[in-house]
Amino acid sequence: QNLLFLRGEEKRHSVNLGNAVDDLRNKMLWSPAVMGRLPYVLAYAASGTKFRLYAIHPEDLSTKVILTQIGRELDLSKTMDRIELFKWVIQVARVIICASKQTGLLVFDD
User: Fold this and answer.
1) Could you tell me where the DSSP H helices lie in the chain?
2) Strands 41-47 and 6-11: what pairing?
3) What is the pLDDT of residues 62-89, one digit of tens each?
4) Of 15, 44, 89, 90, which residue is the least packed, with the fewest Cβ within 10 Å?
């Protein structure tokens, strides 16, 4: 069985980050068959050096999704924002491991 844990949308530098966010929202339909029992899916939008992390979850009982931004927008041309992204990657890995254990699909051995 496969589950979707992380979804991303990337655009080239000359494209507004909002376009990546819109595509993230519009290209995804919530499907329990794909998402399993997960209450949300982590997602990111990136354009050039701009980066945002999101939680995607269903809108009521429909297949439409809601994006909830996690943290602030990062500018990866800045050293401190690159360090913050690295910390986020570690946290996302922890969430994926926890979610995989809760769904019975172990991605990593203990």
Assistant:
1) 17-26, 32-35, 79-102
2) parallel
3) 788 899 999 999 999 999 999 999 999 9
4) 90
| SS3 of 57-73 | EECCCCCCEEEEEEEEE
Edge-to-edge strand list for the sheet holding 50-58: 6-11, 41-47, 50-58, 65-75
The tokens for 96 are 């994926």
| 65 burial type by CB count under 10 A (0-12 exposed, 13-18 middle, 19+ buried) | buried
Distance CA 37, CA 7 (A): 16
The pLDDT tens digits for 18-56 are 999 999 999 988 887 777 677 888 899 999 999 999 999
Rounded CA gap, 35 and 64, in Å? 13
Place of tokens 């980066």: 51
Question: For residue 14, what are its two tokens?
Answer: 């000359």
Mapped onto helix, strand or coil, the DSSP state of residue 83 is helix
